[in-house]
Design brief:
It holds the Pfam family GerE. This protein has 47 helices and 13 strands. By secondary structure, it is mostly helical. Among the domains are: 181 residues, Rossmann fold (3-Layer(aba) Sandwich); 49 residues, no CATH class; 80 residues, Winged helix-like DNA-binding domain superfamily/Winged helix DNA-binding domain (Arc Repressor Mutant, subunit A, Orthogonal Bundle), CATH 1.10.10; 95 residues; 62 residues, Arc Repressor Mutant, subunit A, CATH 1.10.10.10.
Length: 934
């Protein structure tokens, strides 16, 4: 069998068919059978708009080009049923049966089948024949019976059959025919929606450029429907909504083309009034809906909906999911909803919201999302219902609660009695989801209004937390102190103010004040709630950790987890803090176990500034295990999960993981992109360690790009900070060795000694943490050029990348000591090379290979494999890496610097890459790399 191309392309009337490799392969085999004098049957199932008709047209053209006699017909939906359609239309209409009139219908059936068979046999005598019949769902039972009869009768003739039908979720005569033919040996395929790669290719074909992410997002709303997708893309192009710049297609206007709306409206107009009524109501419910909800709104039963649902299925408007029905794609849903007049939409949303509120707590969030679109200003009763919904939604989905609260406030006049309470609620949830500017504006608006004593205290507690998150810790401390100065403050508000004061003191760097205040709280637990006790324990744990008292820090973090019994206390994320500390000291299994319950807390309780925490910690765990690509994916997802929330507390940690992982994976371009990303000026939970960690990996990147001199100032500062704040040395096991190595390269032995002394103290104080001791040994071995110390580090590190790094340091030291230690040096470097290679650390492996070459040893850096002679799969690992870097826009010199080879070697690889990929320019290579990378 010939190799199937990576995609199938065939032009018919200006259209392009893609993403049907499996079916096209079967069509090719079918045509091969016909040319060899054999028969065959290929069956194609698919929903409306899946591209069946295009496939049949392409197949007919291919058959004609191969010398086939082609006959094509289709079932007809409208008009009186005609027996033997579509066979009669395929073979010349009624002329085939003109002549002797039948006496009885049964005799006529047999006679017509005989004449049709004779016609096909006569054509087959002159060469192979393809019979292509579309839309068999509309064919009558007589025609379907004739198809099976003729396919059996002509089994020895070179007649091939390509039959297509539209699938539905009910039994049909055409479906039964397909089952019988499959049982007789026919090959059967179902054409589903186009996958993402095919959608991308179609977009590139229609638009004439590589589609950007915005184009692909909009194209994805077509749900892989080829006809709708083509209409959408062509419409965007015709209406000037897409611009092609440097071969890339970008949206310049986000709107649906008129032809797409017309296409969907035509589909809607093809159904009956009752089905259209169902679809309109269902579209207001949502993209998916429960049949019982639609039935209740329509005042009927789910059973009564079956004929309408069946018609919507047959027209390709609805599909069935495991639990609900759904519109086939977003475009059909959006346009169907838009056909409902705005006043009716609003009334339906109100009706749906009231209906769902009666379903209990689990339906509160969807009910609220409808109410927000159905309530009018001044509707006090409805707004009171929305207030209740917001209160219930806050613990489950703060982001949704923020939208509901701000909408409720917009519908409330400033003079209404409920306005202050709704404003306070809005400030609370806006702060929780990171919409700090909006929260600050509302808080300022309340400052000028007369408030009750309770509302006044509540406002200033909220302002304290808000100011702290905005980086104004001193003002936050003043607000919290002012609240605590009042008499008769309710306990929950007093606890909230105490907690705000703790956070503010940490924000201004007053560690002594934090410890004194937290100690007072913990020593008087009877007078405080779990929220405040948990927060104080966390602050004490972090203070101990920063001071290098690791055992005490872990003990207090575990105690905070134990005390966090309420949802509010869990909102301080003690499990997340504990998992972070356990990751620092490489107790990775325990950290993963703690993360099992911590992730859910981060998503459902507390401030969403912590929503990225589970992903960041999982990324750190992956990085510690040498899974660099997984670490990047987790950290990227973590940042994306809070991208719309404004500043959040773990940005620096996430970016530090991204820089470290991409640097170790050898992609300096991506690492620099992350290092230069815009970050809010916030410390992580009041601690400077996250910023220090980020500055550490940024300095490592600068040294990797431009050498030690490029990071001299940063290295000096990091050495000073690491000696005073041990968190950086604990959190990354190679931090201390890297600082020592770089300081020595800069001739700054004094700062190297400070780092080693700090690590020695940590190791002496914490013998229970093995990796701390190994890191100290590694750093001391570099400072003292101690072979035995480096050898122990290379053997004992749990972190695989750190182990390879220590082996490289050992090999480098031995190589520098002269010919007498050459054999041992090669052994150390080989161990480092094996470690880096196993992790996919291509840049580090390349650096070690260069060191080995200087010792006269050349190690292969590719693996033999059974590769094709052309195409992306034919590239070696090195060629693929060169291609990826060139596709990022790097010059040959820049690629050479990243891969530790000469620019001439890069040019040599590029020549081979161009030949294998059959491209002639870097632009063509970039486009192909984008398609393959997808």
């Amino acid at each position: 069998m010939a190799i199937v191309p990576s995609y199938v392309e065939a032009a018919v009337d200006g259209k392009v068919m893609r993403g049907r490799e499996h079916v096209w392969n079967a069509v090719t085999n079918l045509l091969g059978a016909g040319r060899a004098g054999r028969s065959g049957v290929l069956l194609v199932d698919g929903e409306a708009g899946a591209g069946k008709s295009l496939l049949l047209a392409v197949a007919a053209r291919a058959a004609a080009e191969r010398g086939f006699s082609t006959v094509a017909g289709e079932g007809r939906e409208f008009g009186p049923p005609t027996s033997f359609e579509p066979l009669l239309s395929a073979l010349g209409g009624r002329d085939v049966v003109d002549g002797e009139g039948p006496v009885r219908w049964a005799y006529e059936q047999s006679w017509i089948v005989e004449r049709l068979g004779s016609e096909l046999e006569e054509r087959a005598g002159a060469g192979p024949v393809m019979v292509s019949l579309d839309d068999l769902q509309w064919a009558d039972p007589v025609a379907l019976t004739a198809i099976r009869t003729l396919s059996r009768r002509l089994a020895a003739a070179p007649v091939v059959w390509l039959l297509a039908r539209r699938t539905t979720d009910r039994a049909t005569d055409a479906g039964r025919l397909f089952d019988l033919l499959e049982r007789d040996g026919a090959v059967r395929f179902t054409i589903g929606p186009l996958d993402h790669a095919a959608v991308r290719q179609v977009a590139a074909d229609v638009l004439g450029g590589v589609p950007g992410a915005d184009v692909l997002r909009l194209a994805g709303e077509a749900g892989g429907d080829p006809a709708l997708l083509t209409e959408l893309l062509s419409g965007l192009l015709d209406e000037g909504a897409v611009r092609i710049v440097d071969g890339h297609a970008r949206l310049v206007a986000v709107r649906l083309p008129g032809r797409v709306e017309d296409d969907v409206r035509r589909r809607l107009d093809a159904v009956g009034p009752a089905t259209r009524h169902l679809l309109s109501v269902a579209a207001i419910i949502g993209r998916s809906f429960a049949p019982e909800d639609a039935a209740e709104l329509l005042g009927t039963t789910p059973a009564a909906l079956l004929p309408w649902i069946d018609e919507a299925f047959s027209r390709g408007l609805l599909v069935a999911g495991p639990d609900e029905l759904a519109f086939r794609n977003d475009l059909v849903w959006r346009i169907t909803a838009a056909t409902v007049p705005a006043p009716v939409r609003r009334a339906l949303h109100r009706q749906i919201g009231d209906l769902l509120l009666g379903r209990g707590r689990t339906a509160v969030l969807p009910a609220a999302s409808h109410l927000i679109r159905g309530i009018r200003a001044g509707d006090a009763r409805a707004l009171a219902v929305l207030d209740r919904a917001i209160a219930e939604v806050i613990p489950a989905s703060p982001r949704a609660a923020a939208d509901l609260a701000t909408h409720a406030l917009r519908l409330t006049g400033p003079r209404e009695p409920a306005w202050p309470a709704r404003t306070l609620t809005a400030i609370h949830v806006l702060t929780a989801v990171g919409r700090l500017e909006e929260a600050a504006e509302l808080a300022d608006s309340l400052l000028t209004r007369p408030l009750s004593h309770a509302s006044y205290l509540r406002l200033h507690c909220l302002r304290a937390g808000l100011l702290q998150l905005r980086g104004r810790a001193a003002e936050a401390a003043a607000e919290a102190t002012a609240v605590l100065a009042h008499q008769g403050v309710p306990r929950d508000l007093r606890d909230e103010a105490e907690l705000a004061l703790l956070d503010a003191l940490a924000g201004v760097g007053d560690d002594a004040g934090v410890r004194a205040h937290a100690d007072r709280i913990v020593s008087a637990t009877a007078g405080h709630g779990d929220l405040l006790i948990t927060g104080a324990l966390i602050r004490l744990a972090l203070s101990d950790w920063e001071a290098g008292r690791l055992t005490d820090g872990l003990r207090l973090a575990r105690e905070a987890v134990r005390r966090a019994r309420s949802a509010e206390a869990r909102g301080r994320h003690p499990r997340m803090i504990l998992a972070m500390l356990l990751t620092d000291v490489r107790r990775l299994d325990e950290a993963r176990a703690v993360m099992g319950s911590a992730a859910e807390d981060a998503e459902t309780t507390g401030n969403l500034a912590w929503a990225a925490a589970p992903g960041v910690i999982r990324a750190r765990l992956d990085l510690a295990g040498g899974r660099f690509h997984e670490a990047v994916a987790e950290a990227e997802a973590a940042l994306a999960s809070t991208r719309d929330l404004g500043p959040h507390l773990l940005t620096s940690s996430a970016l530090a993981v991204l820089v470290a992982a991409t640097l170790r994976a050898g992609d300096l371009t991506a690492a620099w992109r992350y290092a230069e990303a815009e970050r809010p000026a916030l410390s992580q939970y009041g601690s400077p360690h996250a910023e220090a960690g980020f500055h550490l990996v940024r300095a490592q990147l600068a040294v990797a790009r431009d050498g030690p001199a490029a990071a001299e100032e940063a290295v000096v500062r990091l050495c000073d900070e690491a000696a005073a704040n041990c968190w950086t040395l604990v959190g990354e096991p190679t931090a201390a060795p890297w600082l020592v190595r770089t300081a020595l390269a800069l001739g700054d032995r004094a700062h190297a000694e400070r780092v080693v002394a700090a690590m020695d103290r940590l190791a002496a104080d914490h013998p229970v943490f093995a990796d701390v001791g190994v890191t100290a040994t590694h750093a001391r071995g570099l400072l003292d050029r101690d072979r035995a110390a480096l050898r122990r580090a290379a053997e004992r590190y749990a972190d695989p990348w750190a182990r390879a790094s220590a082996a490289e340091d050992l090999g480098g030291l031995l190589a520098a000591d002269g010919p007498g230690t050459r054999r041992e040096a090669i052994g150390g470097l080989d161990a480092a090379l094996a470690g880096y290679s196993a992790l996919g650390a291509v840049r580090d492996a390349a650096r070690v290979r260069r060191r080995l070459r200087r010792l006269g040893i050349r190690r292969r850096h590719w693996s033999r494999a059974d590769r094709p002679v052309s195409g992306w799969a034919s590239l070696t690992d090195t060629e693929r890496r060169v291609a990826e870097l060139v596709a990022q826009g790097l010059t040959n010199r820049e690629v050479a610097d990243q891969l530790f080879m000469s620019a001439h070697t890069v040019a040599f690889h590029l020549r081979h890459i161009f030949r294998k990929l059959e491209v002639a320019s870097r632009v063509q290579l970039t486009r192909l790399a984008v398609e393959v990378g997808d």
